[in-house]
Design brief:
- The protein has 15 helices and six strands.
- The chain is mostly helical and 359 residues long.
- Helix 7 crosses helix 11.
């Protein structure tokens, strides 16, 4: 937390950012956040389609209408939480959370049951009227709060948050993390709960002068695993989850804190001129050779291996690449230069502390 506080102070001292820098940062975050938060829930739009849709309102290639609607609605929700967070005279309310759910779901819609046997209507912005649950990796059914419990638990959650925000006994990181966890254990809506949780985390961060964060879809397994570890500590009764303590969810606090520290470090690098844009999405191609096909260039065996190794370890060194592929470092440097010229990879940050990105 000490490192976060130091980076945060540097971030606040740099405000306001230059207009062009702020615009680029906001635009890239808009794309990265909406793409990842929706992909975590199964949206099928590609990163390129998401970017084209949000920047230009256009669609390229095949896409499900529902996915397009939800991606656009998600961005409206993002703008909503930013506006609401800046109004310090308006505390967080249940009504705002319901309005946010109604917005990101883009209205009522039908959904097919898990077994595919029937369709049912999802009521946007309305607390659930039927039980919801999830099947754990071990095959067990994990139940969230019942429809009957939900209104009182949500009222308690919002009252707790408003009280804790005033008391300031929890750090902003702890407050955002614990709200996310308690909210998810209630799961108040029939759909959109994960997206709402991540939006409210950013509402809390933005409200208290932190940059907002992205939990990448590539880290979905770790994200769910750490929530599962907390469930085992907290207990599986919905009431216990809705009243979890900060000590019980420490693994999740550490997880979220790591992303906040990473974002603050990237923000510092942006301000210091070490990078030109903050990118929080890792777009991985299933077959690196197809990158060359799309660009009209023939990639060599070593170049394809370099891409694969970078995809699996963004901080891999030249020496490690040479050792893995069993070629000289000179050969690696030559192939890296070609891949950069092709526009396939780039280096973010310095040679010592930066990382590779497959474009």
């Amino acid at each position: 937390m000490n490192k976060i506080e130091k980076l945060l102070q540097e971030w606040r001292n740099a405000q306001p950012l230059k207009q062009d820098m702020q615009r680029r940062m906001d635009q890239q975050f808009m794309i990265d956040f909406n793409y990842n938060t929706n992909h975590l829930e199964g949206n099928t739009l590609t990163y390129g389609q998401t970017k084209l849709l949000l920047l230009f309102g256009k669609v390229e290639g095949e896409a499900l209408m529902r996915d397009l609607e939800e991606m656009k609605a998600s961005n409206v929700g993002l703008q909503m939480i930013k506006r609401e967070a800046l109004d310090m005279d308006r505390p967080l309310s249940e009504q705002f959370i319901r309005d946010l759910n109604n917005t990101i779901l883009a209205g009522d819609f039908y959904k097919t049951s898990r077994d595919g046997e029937y369709r049912y209507l999802i009521h946007a912005g309305v607390y659930k009227t039927r039980p919801n649950s999830v099947i754990t990796p071990s095959g067990e059914m994990f139940d969230y709060a019942s429809p009957e419990e939900t209104p009182s638990l949500m009222a308690d959650l919002v009252a707790w948050y408003r009280d804790e925000e005033q008391k300031k006994q929890l750090s902003v990181v702890e407050l955002a993390t614990l709200f996310h966890y308690r909210y998810i254990r209630i799961h108040p809506f029939e759909d959109g709960n994960g997206r709402i949780a991540r939006l409210i985390v950013n509402y809390i961060l933005y409200r208290h002068g932190y940059p907002m964060i992205v939990i990448p879809t590539a880290d979905r397994r770790n994200y769910l695993d750490v929530l599962g570890r907390c469930d085992k500590i907290v207990g599986f009764l919905p009431y216990d989850g809705a009243n979890a303590t900060i000590e019980q969810v420490q693994p999740f606090v550490d997880y979220i804190a790591a992303y906040i520290e990473k974002k603050l470090q990237l923000a510092k690098d942006l301000i210091d001129g070490k990078i030109s844009v903050i990118i929080e999405t890792e777009v991985i191609a299933d077959d690196p050779a197809q990158l060359g096909v799309r660009l009209g260039v023939k990639l060599g065996v070593n170049q394809i291996e370099i891409i694969k190794l970078i995809q699996s370890n963004r901080k891999i060194t030249i020496a490690e690449l040479a050792k893995s592929i069993k070629v000289s470092e000179v050969t690696i440097y030559k192939n890296i230069k070609k891949l950069k010229n092709y526009g396939i990879i780039e280096r973010i940050g310095s040679d010592k502390t930066g990382f590779w990105r497959v474009k």
